[in-house]
Design goal:
Number of strands: 48
Number of helices: 18
Organism: Recurvomyces mirabilis
Structural class: alpha+beta
Oligomer: single chain
Protein name: Cysteine protease
Largest sheet: 7 strands, antiparallel
Strand content: 25-35%
GO molecular function: calcium-dependent cysteine-type endopeptidase activity
Shape: elongated
GO biological process, one term: proteolysis
Number of domains: 5
Keywords: Hydrolase, Protease, Thiol protease
Amino acid sequence: MSNARHGLDELIPAAKQPSPESPRSSSRDVALQRAIAEAEAAMRALKLAKDPNEQARQSTRFKQLLQEAERIKHEKNWKSPSSRNNTPADCEHSKAIVQELRQPESTRIVPRAEQILLLKAGYLNGFKFPPWSTLPAPDEFERKDGEGLFTDTPELPLSEFQEDVLDDWKRPSEAMPPPTWFSGDRTNLGPSMSFARKIDLVQDAATDCSVVASLCAGVARAEHGHGKILGTVIYPYDQEKARPAMAANGKYVVRLNFNGCSRKVVIDDRLPVSSTGRIIHVIDRRNPGLLWPALIEKAYLKVRGGYDFPGSNSATDLWILTGWIPEQVFLQSDELEPNQFWSRVHTSFNHGDVLITMGTGKMTAKTERELGLAGEHDYAVLDLREVDGQRLLLIKNPWCEGTSWRGKLNESQRSDVAPTEERAEQSLIELDDGIGPLQSSRDLLNADEQLSSGTFWMDLDNVMQHYESIYLNWNPALFTHRADVHFAWDLTSLRSSGKTPRGQSASLSSHPQYSITPSKSGIVWILLWRHFKNSIPDDATDEQIEEGRYSIDLQGHISLMAFSSGGRRMLLPEKHIEKGWYVDSPQTLLKLKDCKPEMPITIVPLEQDLASVEHTFTLSVFSHSPAEIAPASVRYPYALTLASAWTIDTAGGNAHSPAYSTNPQFAIAVSRKTIISLLLEVTQGDLNVHVKLVHSRGQRVYGIRSKDIVFDSNEYRRGCCVSEGQGLEPGQYTIICSTFEQSQLGTFTLTAESSQPMQMLLLPREGAGRIRLELSTVAFRQEQDMVAARIVAKRLARFYAVVKPLDTAARRGTSSANRSLIRMSIESGRGPHRHIYIASNGGEYADCGSGVRMEDVDLRPELTQQGDGLWLVLDRRYVSAEAQEERFTIELYVDQPDAVTCGVWRAWEE
């Protein structure tokens, strides 16, 4: 052995781990000197190393030791690297990893209704998955005398291709390693739970890239020296050897997290064995007899419906496999800040607190060939490093024949990079002088290891360019407290009960809503996870339904919205403090940075295009202090809901329309001063709507003046609108519900909420119970300002009249400056003998844009036959140049048929 090799062997033990005495050093200087000494040992080992793999290991170790020295030098809390603060991943991690953190458990008492919901959610694909209660007993995996091997039925479904290549379902002794890979003497071959070489998991004849990428990410965490997650996932488990154990009876229990809780998934050890070189289950290329990955995969696919797997994303898969909090980061989002993103992810990855996978979007075949990437495919991230200014990710394609990226790394911004040994020595000098360490060279990084097929380094800039999403699964132990609530959301009731349509324009009135109140200020993460539910096709047979052999329904998108509303229910999806992306994943995460006990947060689940059935969900709250989660409080104690519609006769349009007064109207009465809120929701169609409350003594309104308006919903809003008033005085009022355009038809509901008791009723539509009599059109010629028609009553009759403009300009709501002012009256005589019995608007001329109405009048036959009779007079004032010739229609609403007649229009003078 050479002196160089001998010196290297002496240095490696000292360079592998930080000194255990460093955390117990009596002073910062002592701790810093010890850390520098360890880094110097790693540097000397780096100089002596000749093998590229050894160089890479020592380079990585040297960087880690420099970072530890930096931490001791600059951090206030330099003494406690073994007791990390439980800070969420958005915050700076700054403590070294020594032990695994304790997982938070929900302390909320689950009501019986929610317990029943969880029990029902355990039936899936024809199997029962009960909530996890206790660890399985060791004898559950023993094989008793005369007892056969455990067999789980039915066998999991395979795809058509998998069926074609299937030889049989076989026990591990025959299945591992794959017979077609080792077809000769298998004397020394067989299944194992241990491995001699670095694990290299791949998929082949299964479409579960997300599952295999998830397993690879978990393996990478263990390879970086962090605690193994398997100890809480698969049983039996050998705690002494820290690996799964072989079950003598062929039975395994896997703990998976889905449908509201951790659940017990029981499988046998039979695997689908191929008759060809294609492998149906996950396989380790370097340790082809390794069994536990295939068992975990089988348990997961049992939950998801079988090996004929339609696909998922690895954030969902890791959430199910590990219970680590899933987050989807959209790389094309303008909100993504690369430097901040890298900082939090890189630091958290080094602490073992985040598992990282990635997914591509759709790509053309040409793009796939050029880049060496697969479209709509999940990849695992095995390592993160910063080298010479490069932010690099070690990425693994889980497909066994997967290609590697063919692009180029972006060149370092540094042009004066010194040789490796010189930079290492300079780093130590600069550390002692208070200057930050330089990065090791990229050449060393490239020689870090012999990369397996499909594994490659890629810089962050190219990742952001070529990948669609990064999936982050965060260690829930970063939080000290957790609370879960389980609920059902019945979307069939929305369709059948005539409530508001679903979609972005709908109100939140029918959405489940929850109030979250932390006991201390701080960060709170809220995760909405949708329960898997079987979808039964219309053509399903009784046998399929009985066996549960049908697909899991995952159509549609979900999101979350947060409001600073004191924990009260919200009506509109506006003025939120945070809103998540709509995702087609079964989980969505919302992160709140500064929640305060004095201001409870309202959380509202959102959906788009979910099936119109009952869905069940779980809402999980992660925090640093106990948090109370409860249904959001009602806005006001009193509420009334009435339904109506805009029909051909009642779709009057906005306030500038001449038919505005024909819109549906409601009378509302309050006996005490109150706060009142009005919610108008369209139940059919996609209309822009408005609601207005006016002074009117609870009567139908025919004309609106500004001073009559108490409050309204401001701009027209699609789908629904809200109008709210504070301190409404006792009295009777009228509510007008309108669409923006005239003749827009649809149904709606009006919900009034108030702090004091109230009464509300739908007013009869205009002309209800009356005979409508439409008179001939009035046509004013130039310089003509008054016309009249004789009116005759055949018997005692009661009626009112409405005049509306027919001109296009008037109908479009032109400025009042370009319209005449109109008055309508019933008169007798002329000149000094003129007598006005009744006139519209109290005798005042009014803008004709929305029509003019004359109140009810009683006519007796003898009155209309005296002298020159009675005349219905229409006159105009302030005629503009644009309105010299105008046309109007006049309608009479009479309380009995054939009681009133009206003659032809003629010119008239006062």
